[in-house]
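Instructor's aside before we start: the two examples that follow are unrelated to each other. I chose them only because their records fit on one page, so don't look for a connection. First example below.
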Amino acid sequence: MFLFLGGWLLYLATLAPTVVTIFDDSLELQLAVPTLAIIHPTGYPLYELLAWLVQRLWPVGDAAYGVNLFSALAAALALAWFYLTARRLGAGVGGTVVAAWLLAIGPVWWSQATIAEVYTFQGFLTLFILWAFLRWEDETRAHGAASLALPGLALGMGLAHHRLTLLMIPGLVLFLAWVDPRVFWQPRRWVAPLVAFVLPLSTYMLLPLRSHVGSLDGTYAQMGFWKWIAGGGYGTAFLRENPFGIHRTPLDLFHLARDQYGWLGLGVIALSLPWWRRRPRAAWLLAWVALADFLFATMYKVQDIQVFLIPLFVVMALWLAWGLDTLGQGVAALARGGIRFPWAGHGLLVVAALVIGVWPARLTWVRWPEQDRSQPPARAWGVHDLGLDMLESAAPRGRVIGLLGEMTLLRYLQFDPGIQPGVETVAADDESLRLEAIATSVAQGRATYTTHPLPGLAESFSLTAAGPLIRVWPAGRAQGPAPGHEVDVWLLPGLRLTGWDDILRVPASGPSLRVLLWWQATQPLPSYKISVRLLGPDDTLLAQQDAIPVHHAYPTSLWRPGETVLDTYDMALSAPPPPGSSLLLILYDPSDGHEYARWRTGLGE
């Protein structure tokens, strides 16, 4: 209970308060779970149902926070099951507690416990499977035979969640044969475990039941149920091929494993070797889990391989518990018989306890700032506020066309908290498909927006900035709001500034200054880059942004004479600008930095 509560409080304190990523599975889970959409292959139905239940029952925060919370809950439960597993293996209380906490604050484990992801639940299930089979071994040795219902249930839960569980099966089969080979020739003993095994697998029925909702990218309708639960081609793509061009050696994986517990941890693990002789069957099982996971990671060519090593990290923590136990027994023996004065022996025990206690405490302190997803505000709320800004910048019936991750973010915010539900989102990761979708939307007369520059976009359309979005217009027909400050400043022959405005924004992620510029070209121009700088009353540089106009999408060399181009620059601030601050615009050559023009005005004037 202590480990569960300690882990729970640690992860709650550092938990991401909402959506914090765009281009990974976490954002998908934060939308798929509360809407019960189909998660990417293999579907993760057990995870989805449990996370949905936690998200529905938890009364605080948005839907994304509730899904994040399930990761924290699974991680904390895993620590409790780690204690049960290590104690069943014969490790002492002190060594088990220290090893559990070292697992809790491992960089990979901690990072997965504070965000919506499937891997802390996989860590819990790995421990639950090990504990169930070890419990069966103990009961078999005590009574001559024991039921396999609980191991069957545990294995079924693992396979209802993640394919990493498949790596455990050969080791588990050999473990069964070693402990009680008669079980393979007694069919009646398999009835209860088979029923228990199938029970969690029935959660895969969630996929056909939610087929009318489908997956967020729409591919479930194309693949179908069987291909989806088989992995949907993930194994072929990352085992037989190397789409990301990753070159990773076993030594790289060793360094990654070492980073979880440090050289000191590896040294303590080496002290666990005496235990291997005392529990050879269990030692074999753990060694198989660790080795199979490590070998799989050497062949699986994904960028985030560290999360697939969590079963290895769990086993390493169990070895740590035995190593610490061996170390503690050695120090105790030395204190009892190797020191002349009793008080010195007690002192040695106290010093050893302090050293072992300081180790995880120091690592917790050192790693906290990096692992804390609740702070600073820019990290905790930046993605959320960017999505809100995108939606609020689009016309109420507009269409935003962008990458799948970005559109998932907008769809999440349309779902919770229900911002701009009338805005249509279109995901198109392929650039040619995205350009085609933009052209179709503009031809239909829809207010059309995109999120990134595209080859050929500026040549075919006129562009203006709409907050963080790029508004796409028919060529030469761009329109926009009137400027807050009208001016008539000719910065260069053929280029004038017709207006500007500044907006101080204070979202949850922190203050920022948005500067809007209205440009007009009267003749063809070369390509200029624009530097927007916020200066304090004493001309101190407070913030700066340099960019090709319209979010790098609309070079001045492609502006059409006579059209007005609305341009936007956002500058993050540590505090609102003080009175007397000013704006400075600089036009320069992006190839060599040569400056062509400057213009300065007081902020808000």
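Example two begins here.
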Amino acid sequence: MTAATQEKMEFQTEVKQLLNLMIHSLYSNKEIFLRELISNASDAIDKARYESLTKIEMLGEDKTFRIQVSADAERKILRISDNGVGMTREELIKNIGTIASSGTKKFVEQLTGDQKKDMSLIGQFGVGFYSVFMVADKVILTTKRLGADAPAMRWESTGDGTFTLEESDKKDRGTELEIHIKDEDKEYLEDHRIRTVIRKYSEYISHPISLADKDGKEEVLNGKPPIWRRSKSEISKEQYDEFYKHLTYDDEPPLALTHNQVEGALEYTTLLYIPAKAPYDLFHPEKANGLSLYVKRVFIMNDCKELLPTYLRFAKGIVDSEDLPLNVSREILQKNAVIQKINKAATKKILQLLETMAKEEKDKYRTFWKEFGNVFKEGFHMNWENLDDLKRLVRFESSTTAAGEYAGLEEYVVRMKAEQKDIYYISGESRAAVEHSPHLEVFKSKEIEVLYLIDPIDEWVVQSLAEFDGKKLLNVAKGDLDLGELSKEEKKAQKKAEGTYKKFMGDFQEKAADLLKEVRVTSRLKESPCCLVADEEDMGANMERILKMANQKVTASKRILEINPEHPIMQSLQKMYDADAANPKLGDWYKLLVDQALLAEGSEIKDPAGYVSKVNGFLAEMLAKA
């Protein structure tokens, strides 16, 4: 072919911008160029196979599709060839001379002119064929279209904004790339580097990819069918476990898995695992890995957090979509309707898997909850759509379980007393703290189960967990306690005591007005003289402690003091008041009892030294009388 028949053409303006950025940027993940070129070759083969379905004779004698890679280190040339559909002259200009990819167009639209900022965009958008110029100082592409009488075409460019076109004597269909590698990127001429990149990104492409060594001997680098593309009936538990270990580098097998292939308007496959152990970065969502994303068997990324909500970040596995472009980016993922549908479906599958485990494999679910329960609870403020599922799956310790064991709300309801209307819980910083709370005394005496909410996140969980199965969740340390028929007799005695203690309680409330909103008689106490409760609409003591520990500004609300009219201390104080309402010691006793109530619930007292002084004074007085 003579120079006279060679055409010199210019790239579209946007492509010039892109090529300039590629050539002059120092991008650390240049290896994606090989993924893009092999994906293009695979697509070309798919098109050839489709076009030949009704005309097999179009393929001639060459009916075995393949992608071949070879490197000439001495000449610094990397070759990639396929026997796919190829391109005509017009298709060459359209596919390479202009921007046809929406992802690439979006990439160019976001270019700012700031070199550092622009460099950070590479990799967020698939740059397809143009990515080759990150490693090449010249590219020669020779292609012949399947089923076309037109001659083959030879395309050449150094990435300088122009390219040349001329006819070629290539006889076979398909495309061959001759990539002249830059000196600083000669690693991509080394067999082991090429092998590593292809196996990382393209291991599961359905067409064979071979790498030829310097003697011409070819090694097929793929060919193992992806496990998720196989029928579930063909896969053993051992094979599922082996793939999980390969995927996660976890030594232990997973607790459970779910494998689903969806066909129809939207086509994708999910293979999702529940690990047996929590990773070290579980409580750092920004560091924790998400699922691995494949598009048409091509690996895209291994930490795609957009595929599941954050509270399910413990799940591992893969999603392989037929409906996403290979040039998918994180920005596209966040807004993509396909991803949103997959996210919704994958979330539902994991919740169903956990529910099956909770019902049929309780020991496994107990293991899951110990490892991931605190993270799972985050869903109560993230996933209203699946709130009913979350309610069935949530677990808490309770007054009927041993330490470290858990109860579900369904189990609680089954164990409820016939006359019981509500579900009761108490929150605190530890099991020991809540177990000895005076608020539980009446519940212990009547053998009513109380849930222990002892994780800090539980305070936020119950804000979304207002009821279950038509029954309210009530905090035993808030509001006026009403056990209905279960406390009928106590309520009668309480009414009588209110009359007896009316003036005494008024004096108590007046002298402790800076601390208390109200003083009232209660039926919830059996052993303690008094306890503090929060008003129904006020913040509880445990929530106040949590916020203070987080250095949040908290305006402490006044509390309600409930007194036990049957306790000897209260009876003695009431007599002291009746004898001399002006007795100065009454004020000290009132403050002492408030401080004791604060200590009993785990709260701080304002004046520890003053409290100790009062106690010592009363002890000395008592000992002097002994």
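The CA atoms of residues 393 and 427 lie 19 Å apart.
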